[in-house]
Amino acid sequence: MEAGGAQREAAQPVLNVSEETPVAGVLRAVDTEEETPAAAGQVVTPYEVSAPVGGIDYEKLINQFGCERIDAAIVDRISCLTARPPHRFLRRGIFFAHRDLNTILDLYEAGEKFYLYTGRGPSSESLHLGHLIPFMFTKYLQDAFKVPLVIQLTDDEKFLWKNLTIAECKRLARENAKDIIACGFDIERTFIFTDINYIGREFYENMLQVQKRVTFNKLKALLGITPEDHIGKVIFPSVQAAPSFPSSFPHLFSGNDQLRCLIPCAIDQDPYFRMTRDVAQKIGFQKPSLIESSFFPALQGENTKMSASDPNSAIYVTDSSKQIKTKVNKYALSGGQDSVLLHRKLGANLDVDVPIKYLNFFLEDDDELEHIKKYETQHQEYKEGRMLTGEVKQRLVEVLSELVATHQRARAQVTEEMVDAFMALRPLPNMFG
């Protein structure tokens, strides 16, 4: 599920579309009319995310994809319903878009249930910080709403898209599962599965139902699938769709085929679920709801996400404090000026500054973050040149080192037996409430 690269390609025409796949929702964002410089040439697909200088134009994506922005009213509503402060990813607009989130909140307010579904494509030995984002947020949702969660490890996808053997994909899935478990998920509410091991029976029946109702032209428009791609790439979208339907998990949701599903994910996964929402009611299920995040940028800037293929673009959960310090100091794009004198005069450009963006993700204290970003006469602040780039990077190194060290301690406690327990086919009698 990683994305990267900087290819620019014209949008394909959309055929056989419905309300969930509007013509404006083509992913390769190179429209010719009323295009902003930041949006011109940006590419956002499940397999490729890139943009020219200025980064991803998220407003354009919302308009193209047909999703809705998460506003302050929704954030306040979540806080009221769960009786806890909103996660920093919500209050800072990192999870910024949704599909039918209010429907899920209406159900919850009325005393009804739903379940969570998210996933990971296991293509690397360890996760980087960008990979942690959806799992950190999903854990918050699980804890706040007290609902079950299914986590899909798409080892089949990585065999189809990467130069990896099936055996290696299966091994990486288990290794990634250990990092996911280390995030703190409740085993009484969580089922983790790998596609290669789990697919069959009801899950496969739902795949077939999706496959019969999605045309090749729709896949071409949504995902860039071409006649030259192997047929595995044509079939896989139905694999990612199936967990949206509760009957795919009879050991959990038997007899509850109308249970609603909420999917936390990055916005590059939206096309998979637009396709899923297109067919859901046609095959007797509710449409899944989505809550979608912006991208966690590479150390070199916002033109791409972090990429597992470039170790210097990413902070890994296996990095030491020394490695983190080296990467931040050497590779993290600064919005500061070229000299101290100029920086004191002009201040930092926070729109491009990666250390500030990373602190926005991971520094919990809102007051401290605002103190760094904004000007107050009695303090040193970055935007006004009263705080230097080195000071901001030093604070970031402290925050990331603590985060990664905490994760490493939790990961060291995860055994093979714990992975087996999370993946065991078993009922979860305490999964609600």
What does this entry look like structurally?
The chain has helices at residues 58-65, 72-82, 88-91, 101-109, 129-145, 155-161, 166-181, 195-198, 201-213, 216-223, 231-241, 250-253, 270-280, 321-331, 340-346, 354-362, 366-373, 389-412, 416-423, and strands spanning 28-29, 42-44, 49-50, 68-69, 95-99, 114-120, 149-153, 190-194, 260-266, 289-293, 297-298, 301-305. The chain is an alpha/beta fold. The strands form 3 sheets. The protein has a 7-stranded mixed beta sheet. The chain has a 3-stranded antiparallel beta sheet with strand order 1-2-3, covered by helices on one side. It has a two-stranded antiparallel ribbon with strand order 11-12. Strand 9, helix 13 (270-280) and strand 10 (289-293) form a beta-alpha-beta unit. It is globular, with a radius of gyration of 22 Å. One of its GO terms (molecular function) is tryptophan-tRNA ligase activity. Keywords: Aminoacyl-tRNA synthetase, ATP-binding, Cytoplasm, Ligase, Nucleotide-binding, Protein biosynthesis. This is Tryptophan--tRNA ligase, cytoplasmic.
Question: What's the short version?
Answer:
The protein has 19 helices and 12 strands.
